[in-house]
Batch of 2 targets.
Target 1
Amino acid sequence: MSLSKQHELHERRFGRNVGVGLVLVGLIAIVFGLTVVKVTRGDYETPATQSVSQ
Amino acid sequence: MTDTSINTQSRSAETDAQFSDYFALLKPRVMTLVVFTAFVGLLAAPTPLHPFVGFCAILFIAIGGGASGALNMWWDADIDAVMKRTQRRPIPAGKVTGDEAFAIGIALSAFSVVFLGLATNWVAAGLLAFTIFFYVVIYTMWLKRWTPQNIVIGGAAGAFPPMIGWAAATGGVSVESVLMFCLTFMWTPPHFWALALFMRKDYDNADVPMLTVTHGRRATRNHILAYTVLLAILAVAAGFTSIGGPVYIATSLVLNAMFLRGAIRIWRRDEDISEDDNFLAERKFFKLSLLYLFAHFGAILIEAGLDRFGVWA
């Protein structure tokens, strides 16, 4: 039994909230996937570190 | 004291928008054409793209196309409310407000362009941005309510996706991608004018200057035939360029013969004959036009595949 009663608005917008949640999960997956592909293919290279001479 | 209460009862359950209503703003059916032609443009390109990057590129192009659909619905809400074909769209149905559609359209436009640029290159992103601008500002806001040539010039917006797909893979524009653009561009007028012939009252009531309204239905039938002849010449000729080949030429010859026959049939008919069979020939021509475009791009895809596997080499 839940501690607080579910507001009618939450029931009404359940489908919409699930949809938005799935879109956000998809966005994370895309950004992560693109990052992995770009980095592993060497599209982005970290700048060479410069040694500081004394 | 400040009243912080929020009115959560302003909308009834019937008019409350579901996720599907927001998705409908993106014109999913139009999106299938965008996705397919962009996919063909991307795969037909000589430079292979990493499958995941390719998938993302198609997704961002589809989102960009959807965003322009949402902005189109925001601007055209008054027309949509009058036309039977569009009355059930989310804004006229009262599910989504115009402001929401505008916000979604702008946000998704920016998202799709930036992400396409980051995922592939900025030529493709620039083309996508231009496509959204062309569809929303040039076609929706300007041409649609101003000139009967709205469909002809506005058709360019729907013709860009294969060019964007090609640019996503190659980083540029070439003769092949321009030919794919031309194919969709020339196909759009007969496709929409056939629709306008059998959805006749809709455009009259909405006061949209479609050719059927401004120049009459006889002139529309003449225009359908003229554009179909030009399209047939272009479509078959494209078969002898680098995007074509035996499969494409065979497909194109058959489909253009069918399409020309349909256009001639429409041209020969008058309103009385069309009324008698409830615009059967016009409806058939419209359905055939969908098959026509998908088959042509399908053939380009097959040719690209055969070429890649060295079948014609």
Note: Chain A has a mean pLDDT of 81.
Target 2
Amino acid sequence: MKKTIIVQEQGQAMLADALRKIKEPSRRQFLQRSLTLGGLALLTGCDVSDESSIEAGLNKVSRFNDKVQGLLFDPNRLAPTYPDSMIAKPFPFNAFYGEDEVKQIDGDSWRLELSGLVTRRTPWSLAQLRALPQESQVTRHICVEGWSAIGKWGGVPFAHFLNLIGADKTAKYVGFKCDDDYFTSIDMATALHPQTIMALTYDGQELPPKYGYPMKLRMPTKLGYKNPKHIRAIYVSNTYTAGYWEDQGYNWFGGS
Amino acid sequence: MRSPSLKTDIIHPAWLRLTHWLNAVAVVVLATSGWRIYNASPFFPFSLPSGLTLGGWLGGALQWHFAAMWLLLANGLLYLGINIATGRLRRQFFPLSPRAILNDLLAALKGKLAHADPRHYNMVQRAAYLFVMLDCIVLVMSGLVLWKSVQFPILRELLGGYDSARRVHFIAMAGLVGFVGIHLVMVALVPKTLIAMLRGR
């Protein structure tokens, strides 16, 4: 019979120690607080004592919010457009690095790579993209930080390009890898939205390096961090991959 | 003869107490996370003290905000639904007249407003609680525009566009926080109201 693992003297010492600690007011307070947290945990269904489980819970809600936004997204509803006179000057620079660290990319040797659920994967040169039908838009760029600025982008409607390369439009995601090591992915419905364009120009001029030369994806239906700059590769996939900011906690759908 | 008297003693029914405290949790989480979101790009010449904010950074604050919004919405619909369906809203908050509000407000400022029957709201309480209900509706509506400005064009234009909706959302928040401040002072002055909101009596 090996019922007692602790020898008696040690057991008594531990009990005395525990009783002394319970008498300390800060301990009692801690216990009271954990009881309150316990009540909260019952409500939320997650273990609040563990910080990473709070994060896991919040991430779950964020995935749920992705689904809700997918349902709210109307593929035919257009973002408001504005007159040229309302374009912000200068249009703010924003990236996960400073303006002096902007990548200088050689447009002549640049090629857009394609992969995934795409039938024609031949890389595209800048000249080839410029030869495609172009559209321009004056729309509001909304940053996740809350500020917004109106700008003018021109380029190839992305739905047209996806048709040209034989992309599987029933796939769930379109992903982007960028020359500044940025990456993100979007839902197919937004990829096919009429205002989603592969921007090659800004305000009538060749897209400057700070705004994503040679090509960025412009979506007025999504927040700024979902609009990747300096795109090097595009893939179509049914496998969920998040993104640079999304991996740190920004919402994946990021739509407005 | 205990149970009938217990029943008439009830000041706040259980559903009201439950929705009140759930709302308190939602409001604290939404306000403190919202302050950090505001701080990411303030549009007034001030930031809010980051020690009072929730989330640690913008991404964390957004996650809290977009989680607690569901609690505010679901709980708010539950509260309004029961309040309207049971006739409590009409019974407790109406009639309401500006003159009566003014009279009760002056009486309150002179410290002469009676709290004899806690089941019966005075005119200032009625006005304040109705204000906070409407204010929360404005918060949800302006929040919807900030979250999904493209998907809710009518609401967006009603609020004067995306940028204007940010200010509406902020001012409605300030109204709510102002209400909570006065509410807490009142509870401190008449502590039995806190007991009533906990025990129902």
Note: The longest strand of chain A covers residues 148-157.
